[in-house]
Write the structure tokens for this entry.
Amino acid sequence: KNIDLVINTHLHFDHAGGNTTFNEKGEIVPTFPKARYFIQKGEMEVALNPNERIKASYITEDFLPIGDPKSLCLVNGEVVEVDKGISLVKIGGHTRDHQCVKIESEGQIAFFLADLVPTVAHLHYPYIAGYDLFPLETLENKKKVLKQAFEERWLLIFQHDPKVRMGYLKKVGERFEVEEVKIY
């Protein structure tokens, strides 16, 4: 339990579900009590007041118990550095305030795509998840990010792909494919 930094790309249950756990009394508490939890302010506002379309995606028990001002860090910005070499990059589409994570170390960049490009199948521009609330924004942001990732040879990390966890982009004709980096 030495984790001191948790980044929520957004607050849907499949991304925020690990924020909390039950203690021995059965109370819901932060999973990592020493951690600072980073969330876009706009994402928190929507999660606390969801409309009918998105209400089922948010489970307040996943994020309300981390509301202590010492641990909850609401950020508001396009790019926010949260620690040396770790930046949050606000990239809407999946949700209005969805964010990805950019990690820079020793001249290399890794980029956690979260739900911007959840699987390698979504590398093809028109493939956009049905859960994306702003699909045209996803499309434009995906084009920008993938172009930069290819040109600068970023290591891309895929949140939901059942087989490929990470890899580098390569061009095959006009499309991107991934050169997988095996981690296990």
Observations:
- The longest helix spans residues 135-152.
